[in-house]
Design a protein that fits this description.
single chain; alpha/beta; seven-stranded parallel β-sheet; five-stranded mixed β-sheet; 14 helices; 26 strands; about 25% strand
Length: about 475
Amino acid sequence: MSEPREYAKVQGRLVIVGFGLIGQGTLPLLLRHLNVDPSSITVVTAQTTGLKQLEASGVNFTLQSLTKTNYKEILIPLLSQPGSILVNLSINVSSIALFELAQSVGALYLDTCIEPWEGGYTDTKRTLEDRSNYMFRETALKFRAKDRPTAVIAHGANPGLVSYLVKQALVDVHRDIHGEEIIPQTQKEWAELAKKLDVRTIHIAERDTQIANVQKQIGEFVNTWSVDGFIGEGLQPAELGWGTHERYWPEDGKRHKSGCGAAIYLEQPGAATKVRSWTPTSGPMHAYLITHNEAISIADYFTLRDPTGKATYRPTCHYAYHPCNDAILSLHELAGRQWREQPKKRVMRDEIVSGTDELGVLIAGHARNAYWFGSQLTAEEAGRLAPYNSATSLQVCASVLAGVVWAIENPLEGVVEADEIPYQPMLELISPYLGPLTGVYTDWNPLTNRQWPVEESVDINDPWLFHNIRVW
């Protein structure tokens, strides 16, 4: 890379909670692009992995788990200096508790997902609805208020980066169909653009082909990012933004009793729910409908309503994730164990020898059928661009950097989602770490080459119905 650009200055202390794969990959980017002295950084982590990196970086660190009873005692002294920032890259620590605390002491905040306290995803004493990302998001958004310290929530690769990819994809499709480039400025204008194009569905379509030189073993869960994080969200109910064009209600589908009404959930885990989707390199795929915040926030953002509040337009939106081959085997084994976790866990990074994390958005239903736009980052290029990273982690870490920079530059915006942040400067900041940013049209749809019509009911009049997309 060319000489690193400095994007912003940290006025107070920078506190990072969690130092797993994403924390380890993010720290070098923050040191590279922020005006911050390493001695002004403190990492709070319960993990002993990454200690050599912390020591070599010259940052402060403390080996402690944050709990409901100790998080204030640990964090408040660290954030007491004006202009401080709390970057939450942990799991099993409540995002809402942390951003409330940060705002109460005047600190900025960022996380990569809306995380509950430990057990919040899988607590069988709570209803499926209460364990949904929809409800976590609704709770977080109740704290919205301007002129409060900025808290950027759910700002990794997805959720986060993909909201910017959706907007660029819509601009591209409109330009290619209508011959002019328009860039909406408001939520309503963006939703009207999607409606004008007749976008029916938006897939966050990701295919991870990274391969390691250490094979998965029996009784081991292997993944290219947090194993605990993946299992936790995989065991949550499958969730998707529910489009106004949908005509077939899923038999296991449930609506939420309150909130924006933009999404539904299924009465089965995302790790047991498959959908048909497409990426440029791998082509058609069966992917997992893992619940993610962006499926809800994007569907909500692109909703139009009549004067009574009834939704008149909304695209269906969901994550369609095909993890690396070892993770597929791990999920298969997990299901066979009746969703009891394997005794061994391993996050692939240094042992990765090849492959790509192809992460983008598939915008479908318009006059050009479908358009995928996103990052095609290879493992080799990720290693060249930033230390301590794989292709999967770097897409997240670059988005964390961008979110921190935006918070510093916009310090009094309250609770903010990526959908509300101007997309062009964010894409410009993140894109040097994404590998090729590629836009590809395809004539594929979920009915292409379906050879067993007797076994399933399809609707040939509207290929982009969830009824056709879901794998039974």
